[in-house]
């Protein structure tokens, strides 16, 4: 039995793919109404959340493999690590991103803290270190529909953007594999380095209408995100990240996705085509 710890953009697709492989899979969710389609394909649901140790322990019963995917809050993910250790889980596959103890971005410091404790736990682990998600572009859809364009403080920084569905596919492939991948860290990217200017060009092509991109300062980007409804702390963290993108922080590619899946990673154009209705 495989446990997937949340049913967000990566977790939901991981569950779906595992069920396609006819594997027994359980998912921890807060609202079962949102995952009816997973129940329909045979997934087992446990209602709870990552702040609730009793619900995590309940979900962990009989589990051999955990796919640890969440927003990356240390207390929550470490609840899962400790529960997995108590339950004698054989391996943990953790979805993560760049992690550093001294990063200016809190999210990366959090990931470092989680990874360090996972490694110290003695559990068998595999780390899936993803570059920026293509799905983050979906947050730009309201601005694109309203103004015909979008802005960012990422400047012309390049990113090895990856479709979250490919991250899920790698997680499902490793969870289903007889090969353990123990102690491995895989870097997950799309097939090409992409700037936000190229995102605009790709959307223009797919949508059949012009989509513009304009560069923003840190303060302009932060304030735009706050105006769009993001909490100030999260908006500041995101603007910090985009500033690092401008400096080349995400300018890296890897062949791990095609090697692990036996097919190319999805391109930005494929992603935009699949989500065209969101931008229309």
UniProtKB/TrEMBL annotation:
It comes from the Bacteria. Gene3D superfamilies: NAD(P)-binding Rossmann-like Domain, UDP-galactose 4-epimerase, domain 1. InterPro entries: Ergot_Alk_Oxidoreductase, NAD(P)-bd_dom_sf, NmrA-like. Signal peptide: none annotated. Residues 4-271 form the NmrA-like domain. This is Nucleotide-diphosphate-sugar epimerase. The lineage of its organism: Bacteria, Bacillati, Chloroflexota, Ktedonobacteria, Ktedonobacterales.
């Amino acid at each position: 039995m495989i446990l997937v710890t949340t049913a967000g953009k990566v977790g939901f697709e991981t569950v779906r793919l595992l069920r396609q492989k006819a594997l027994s899979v359980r998912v921890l969710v807060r609202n079962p109404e949102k995952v009816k389609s997973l129940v329909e394909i045979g997934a087992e649901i446990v209602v709870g959340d990552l702040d609730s140790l009793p619900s995590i322990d309940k979900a962990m019963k009989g589990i051999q493999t955990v796919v640890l995917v969440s927003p990356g809050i240390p207390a929550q993910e470490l609840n899962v690590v400790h529960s997995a250790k108590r339950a004698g889980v054989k391996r943990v596959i953790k979805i993560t991103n760049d992690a550093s103890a001294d990063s200016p971005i809190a999210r990366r410091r959090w990931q470092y803290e989680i990874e360090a404790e996972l490694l110290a736990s003695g559990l068998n682990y595999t780390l899936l270190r993803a570059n920026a998600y293509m799905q983050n572009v979906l947050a730009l859809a309201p601005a694109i529909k309203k103004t015909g364009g979008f802005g960012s403080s990422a400047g012309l920084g390049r990113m090895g953007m990856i479709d979250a569905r490919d991250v899920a596919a790698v997680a499902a492939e490793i969870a289903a594999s007889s090969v353990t991948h123990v102690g491995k860290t895989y870097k997950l990217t799309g097939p090409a380095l992409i700037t936000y200017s190229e995102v605009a060009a790709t959307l223009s092509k797919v949508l059949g209408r012009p989509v513009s991109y304009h560069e923003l300062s840190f303060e302009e980007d932060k304030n735009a995100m706050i105006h769009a409804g993001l909490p100030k702390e999260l908006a500041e963290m995101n603007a910090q990240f985009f500033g690092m993108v401008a400096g080349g922080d995400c300018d890296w590619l890897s062949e791990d996705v095609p090697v692990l899946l036996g097919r190319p990673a999805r391109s930005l154009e494929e992603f935009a085509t699949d989500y065209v209705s969101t931008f229309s």
